[in-house]
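Handoff note, outgoing to incoming analyst
You'll be picking up this chain. Sequence as last confirmed:
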Amino acid sequence: MKSEDIKPELPEQEAIIENVELNINEALFPVVILVGMLAYNIFIFGDSALGGSNQFILLMGASVAAIVGFLNKVTYAQMMEEVAHNVKSTSGAILIMLMVGALSGTWLLSGIIPSMIYYGLQILSPTFFLVASLVICSIVSLATGSSWSTSATVGIALIGIGSTMGIDPGMTAGAVISGAYFGDKISPLSDTTNLASAMAGAELFDHIRYMFITTIPSISVAIIVFLIMGFNISSTGTPDITDKLTAIDSAFNISPWLFLVPAAVIFMVIKKTQPLVALLAGALFGGIAAIIFQPDIVVKVAGGVSLDFNTAYKGILTALTTKTSIATSNAELNDLFTAKGMEGMLGTIWLIICAMVFGGVMDAIGALARISESLLNMFHTVFGLFASTVLSCLAINVTASDQYLAIVIPGKMYKKAFDEKGLHPVNLSRTLEDTGTVTSVLIPWNTCGAYNAGVLGVPTVDYFIYAIFNWVSPFTTLIVAALKYKIKQLKS
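Most recent structure output, in case you need it:
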């Protein structure tokens, strides 16, 4: 049997639970309360809200929904049954996320990620600086799955380099953010990529492949604009990255042979190997590469004296499961060379489980059915449903101020509506990423906007217009929907 013949069961294909006792105002009440609580919670906790308080607020939102359910003749047992079913439906996504964390750990330990950064930094030149910045950040973010780490490390360095060349920091920041969010958006290591596919019920690599339909045009527009800028701005000076290259080269054994590992994973993905298998293989290959290319680092991580079976075992298992940090002589790079292993994915997994509790209760009381019915009555076209999803993601990014919530809430609320229209889950997962993920950084009071403005030292209003990929992406997804281009349907 071919791997592509194995189709996971999609819970969103099941019948929508209806409750004739529930009206639209009652159905929307838990959502309004949830968004309000989340907005206040983020105001109080700021960036640390994702550490656990947002998850608890999702449970509080589920409690409000449960009260509405009790008032409309829904029993506790019915609610818990639907919650259990929802949590069970995410088991595959949770296992994949754990493998993603494991892979990121061994790819750092083996020097794969540092090698990508090392060779990427060497393509800088004054005329093509903005495009090079976009490409470098794309590579780093794709390799690490983190736009925030990219901005806080390579991004800071590029801002400094650009300033010495007389380039507007807003332009450099826009290029950094465009590249960072492009790489984050299509990386299987990214928590938002995994989160969007899990919320929509789409298979991870199907979701990534389908995103290219809108992502390639968006990043192409950004590249063209930055090329035009590069030929029209006057710059002086020569970028000095010697200290960073030296720091990376001193800490790791840099080699192009290390790229055989990601190449093998890409080959497996192209051959439609199951994601869990491909990621597990990539993590194990990374461990083998670490023993071959970075034996001293393996020994150091293991806390040993020399490389033997025990230290190799301990070093690799540590990288696979928990936080691993590799120090260099350059302080700007040290935060980048940190991976959290499987442990680092637990926050996102926790968020998904709590979101499934909220969604399960909303399912059980018939709220999602009522909201879906209203959406379908309001939007009679496929384009209308896509537009509604885009606007909802933007609204939550503005009101709740968090990109994760801009994925979780619309993802759970709209998946039934997309199913009713006969649309495959990848349509929803892609739209969530095209809007929920990438526009968060454009809003000053959103956690992403505040974070990037702080670490780059450039106000959001200064880089907004130059973060071309981020604000073009929602328009691209709407254009594709309006043209009805490659809108994937559910198989009957």
